[in-house]
Please model this.
Amino acid sequence: MLLALARRGRPLAPFDTMHETATVPSSIRWTERWIRRAWGLPTGEGFYCDHPSKGSGARRSPAYQMVNEQGNTMTMETATWEEANDALCKIRKYAPGGPQAKDGTREHERRVNCEFGLHEFMRTNYLLKSVVPEGRSDALLSVSLGEDIWHILTVQMSLPRLLLLEVLVEFAFIFAGSAALIAVAVAEGQLVAPGLLGSKLMLSFTTVRISSDAIFGWQERIPSTTPEIAVLALIGWFHWLLLSVAGSIIVARALRPLQQVGFAPDCAMNETEISVRMVNLRRTVMLYDVKVALVCTISGMRYNLPLTNGMTTYDSIYTYPMTFKHDLTAPDSPLNKKNLHLAKFQSIGVSLTATDNAGNPVVAHAMYWNPKAWTVRRREFQNTFADCSPYPRILRGKWADQVRMYRAPNSASEFAGSNIPDFLFNMDNFHVIHATETDSAV
Model:
């Protein structure tokens, strides 16, 4: 549902009424779908044509949403997602083939989905690499070598590389142990032969519990000498130490906060306010003691942006989408300046800290960039996003409507369900900003 709505662009007129159930194309692979079903994760697609209180029996279909003259959000059912997409292209300014800025700012390029991984991409590929230290030695920027290596293992290194490192270290340890046993045997006068190499390798495997008599079968062998027993004891102890360190790394990585919230890939700005959208990614998670901070950067200086309602802490946030706003007309707003040039207004950052209902910490951050800022016009910035979707932008406009009460398809009349939910929110509109026709100054 999140990805399929805006992938095709053949112009067709939307249907006003539909009575047949349309086939919904999958936005995920069938393997992922079956895995999600096995774990009880949501896999539904389409807009509700029946009230969601019917559960899994509620009919869902391709559709698009529009606001009628009375201000009510209506769901218009269509036969295919192509028709729904073409109807939306008539409403939104950021459509495929729309105007592209010649300076490479990509301000009017359409974004096709929520892109919850965009802000992590910005953090790892631009923010953390935009400044590089120099001087006598880069190693001076360190507390200790051991702490730096521990940070790499528990935070920085990817999981596939960590597993590969564990396998390589394990086998290197086994071969080093067999080499030590061969060296002890040679020192005791034994001849180096294929049989000796194989027996010591199997003995090293047995020491780290990869092989055993139950697998290879028991057979009588020459008793180990005192030096060999000492080497075997050291191999067993160091292998226990290796497993202890590996277990500590696994526990440390498991305790890292999960991404429980997602910020919209762009934020909206108009003459009166700046607003940032956020949604809880999991319907089973509730956040408590939520702290939100908005900050803007003007000419290299950071300024606090107070929220419109004066709040900085929320008691709880659940699955209902949230919008954090800053009033540009407020006297204490750093952006409430008549002669503020747009090129000096660089970016807006938002951070969130909270605790989920399992007692785990939740941390999230996003940074949005002004397309008219000098930083965005630099080649270094543009090349970072040259082969991917647009960077997180500050777009002039208003958010598309997202939350609605259930109404029958192609109808403005309300419908009362037999049970909850009371509201529905359209995730296909989560990232959509209806742009203003003109770009006036802040």
